[in-house]
Amino acid sequence: MSRPLPAVDLALLLVSGGSLVAGAAFAVIGRGAVAHALWIAGALPILVALSISIVTALRRHEAGVDVLALLAIGFALGLSEYLTAAVISLMLASGRALEQYAQQRARREMTLLLTRTPRHANRFEAGEWRQIELDTVRPGDRLLVRNGEFVPVDGSLMGHAQLDESTLTGESAIQQRSSGESVCSGVVNMGAAFEMVAAASAADSTFAGIVRMVESAQQERSPATRLADRYALLFVAVALLLAGGSWLVTGEVVRALAVLVVATPCPLILAVPVAVVSGMSRCARRGVLVKGGGALETLARASVLFFDKTGTLTSGRARLVSIETGPAISPETVLRFAASLGQASAHVISEAVTTAARERNLVLPAPRRVVEQAGAGVQGEVEDRAVAIGSFAYVSSLATPALWSAAFLQRVGYGGASAVFVSVDGVMIGALQMADQIRLETPRALRLLRQEGIRRLIMLTGDRRDVAETIGATLGLTEVRPEQTPSDKLEAIRAARREGTVIMIGDGVNDAPALAAADVGVAMGARGAAASSEAADVVLLVDRLDRLVEGLRVARQTRRIALESVIAGMALSFAAMVAAAFGFLPPLLGAVIQEVIDVAVIANALRALRIRSTATAGSLSRGDAERLKSEHVELGPVMEQIRELADKLPRLPRTSVVGALAGMNELLERHLVPHEQRDDLEVYPGLARMVGGEDPMAAMSATHREIFRITRLLGQMTEDIRPEGPDAASLREFQRLLYGLDAIVRLHCAQEDELFHALGDGA
């Protein structure tokens, strides 16, 4: 239904209200003619506004119920029911103003994005900082962002920064960013001024794309709103038939007027757009940008979900999985040499290796005389020793291949991972297994998607079949389709649309055709490829898969709230029309009752703003979640030493076994056991309150008990070893316990990381 500008709605409300009150005052003192004139004067502007609204709607080939309001006021004036006409006008003007207020409130989070558009930038020119127009910023420009200013364009930091990213991501905590990290336009500097290097122009930056999406979303009419218009035609016909029938049967035109009054305006037209926009606003608050009401409603009906793998189910970034070492070489030594040399390389694998070393607090000396061969590896000097890192072919050309290298390459190939070999002074001392790991939130997100009614979960990927099927089996996906080209993905989605409403989620340029072909395309992350974001109907501004669950939940609850509002409003309006047709409801009282119905319908539709996005009773702060996960990173070397000892135990001289096991027991008692005890006594009680339930951490605590049992058993068995060393059976038992402990601790840490990640969502 077409609407004038908000200022016009306010003016109509003031005119109709003022004329009604003034007319009532003159009627009380016996000046009836003046009162009638004032009431007519208050009704005429509403008639004009309604006429404009109807003509505009007809030009757009849209239907509406403004015609009922026009007839009601016209009938009232024609029957000299001037007070009734004035009251109808006031009720109509207040209803329009109320709807406008409700929609403005519902759009608050989306509109906030538009108000944060940067206008200027501070660029370093001719030895000084100069304020320039945003459109003149180019990639490579050196920019300054002062405290409280918006980051003007996408770029990389030249120093430390404290950023408020809440408008884009929904995360309320201030984010700490370091030199070299990327930063998105539209976030706010909450700390000291910092410098950055522009990576894109304003038009090509993240925030500009989001603004375009928001503006498009605000202009689009929801299919449900168009559906409401079609129902409105039926409603108008029923109202006119009921009004005309009551007039013809009884001969009382006042009854027809009363029917038209209670049919003005229609709750159907008020409820649907308010509920849909409220749902879109709720999604935006949680970092899920829905481009239009149509996408929100289609999302609510979805039953089939296609995933891309890289960057969607997985993080899209390589992480250190394990370290293979040669004899008498520690894993820390291999990682330290590799990361030290990797500091001089911009390759993503080198950056991942360096990040892994820094997470373990390793001191990395600066490399010298670095030479990089693109796509192969890097060589240089670290602490006056010749070091090389890279592919097996590259490193083996500079060092003698190790005996274990062939088996390591085969093992790495099974998981679709990559290997970084390390040589020092011509000797291959070890290798790093790097893999794009499954996102922490992915298993939980898939479980919740099934709970929300998604019956098919299908992965589309260009990876090899063995790699894809391993991930599919790990996650319990319904179907895995490997070695897919963009055209294959497109055909798969088109075929699935014949079976149900399809969602496709991806993050790369090659996903854009599939995103566009799906009923609902979802792009991962605001920093993702522009092509996928433009093609998608929904953009997850936070790079987390579980935000899709929240969007789906909000969409389905929004649709239910809209239907509830429509059914209740229509039923009440129809009951009032029947009562008016039988003469039980005079026009003046009918106008008041209809306004009450409208207010109730809009208030119910606004419930979509309060949809809960999570079932947890609380959440960890981002800092606490990161601290708890970082403690597991510090445990990484301990887990590696457990596995390393288990591997080499049969090869150790029997007289050395006691010393090796004693050292391991001391390591466990000093690091692992205190960590798990602290978790059980200090961390788990707080987590239990957040998760809710009688004893939600019982299974996790049981794992702690098993870790305590194995470490104690290892200690007791070590004390009982005879001086000449353990026999073969005891050696096998030690090895079994060490492998078991390694598996339990790794699994337990992974479970805790997933829990910390979920509770650290800021919900």
Automatic annotation (TrEMBL):
Stretches that traverse the bilayer: 12-30, 37-58, 70-93, 231-250, 256-277, 561-582
Family matches, as InterPro entries: ATPase_P-typ_cyto_dom_N, ATPase_P-typ_P_site, ATPase_P-typ_TM_dom_sf, ATPase_P-typ_transduc_dom_A_sf, ATPase_P-type_domA, Cation_Transport_ATPase_IB, HAD-like_sf, HAD_sf
Keywords on record: ATP-binding, Cell membrane, Membrane, Metal-binding, Nucleotide-binding, Translocase, Transmembrane, Transmembrane helix
One cellular-component annotation, GO: plasma membrane
Highest taxon in the source lineage: Bacteria
Primary location class: membrane
Domain Hemerythrin-like: 626-757
Family of this protein: Belongs to the cation transport ATPase (P-type) (TC 3.A.3) family. Type IB subfamily.
Protein name in UniProt: P-type Zn(2+) transporter
Originating organism: Paraburkholderia atlantica
